[in-house]
Design brief:
Length: 215
């Protein structure tokens, strides 16, 4: 099973959602994201949020469509996205894609990236990607990983999410590295490029944000 979550980020940053519809995909709406899904003729199985960005008329429309709604007060400890992601993780899917979680408020963007860390620390074997029109973002812990070239995403950037990342090695890249220590705040690994169909990256300690971007 694959779960797709649509949050209420700027619509102009969303990819074409029709490219991500398939029979084995379960859709989840977060706050205004549920309304945007229904506007795209996609019915989510469940929706999370305080729905403070939804008008009464829009909420009535959502309720008529029969989606299960988990409504919360604005005063809560978790963001709407965290509540939705926790539900998705509990379903044990093989992949989670999150849309509408970039752009707009920077605090939400940073929080959404950090939400990818707890599943990693819990050793959940679930691939989780943040996706918008220009970027694919995911996080990795220590290990060796294969990465394939994407025609529409030329650049690959590696950004420490911890105080440092140890022994970063990049092979098959325009700018290779061998056992390099990357401290938090370094821009050394921004805008790299794969030079063949695939490459590898590996490191021994820390948490790394991987960002695949277009021009």
């Amino acid at each position: 099973m694959i779960i797709h979550i649509l949050a209420g980020g700027p619509k102009d940053l969303l990819p074409d959602l029709s490219e991500y519809t398939a029979q084995n995909v379960v859709w989840v709406g977060v706050d205004r994201g549920v309304f945007n899904l229904l506007q795209n003729n996609i019915k989510p199985v469940i929706a999370f949020g305080d729905f403070d960005s939804i008008t009464k008329e829009e909420m009535a429309f959502i309720e008529r469509m029969g989606t299960e709604i988990k409504r919360y007060k604005p005063e809560k400890d978790e963001t709407d996205m965290e509540l939705a992601l926790n539900w998705a993780l509990a379903q044990n899917p093989k992949m989670i894609r999150i849309f509408g979680a970039t752009g707009g408020r920077l605090d939400h963007l940073l929080a959404n990236i950090q939400l990818l860390v707890p599943p990693l620390k819990e050793n959940k074997e679930i691939e989780i990607n943040l996706i918008d029109r220009h970027n694919i973002v995911f996080v990795k812990g220590p290990g060796k990983y294969k990465i394939h070239k994407l025609k529409e995403k030329k650049y690959v950037s590696f950004v420490p999410l911890t105080l440092s990342v140890s022994n970063l090695t990049l092979k098959g890249f325009k700018y290779p590295l061998e056992n390099r220590h990357i401290p938090l705040g370094s821009t050394l690994c921004i805008s790299n490029e794969l030079i063949s169909d695939h490459g590898t990256f590996s490191f021994s300690d820390g948490i790394l944000i991987v960002i695949r971007s277009d021009d």
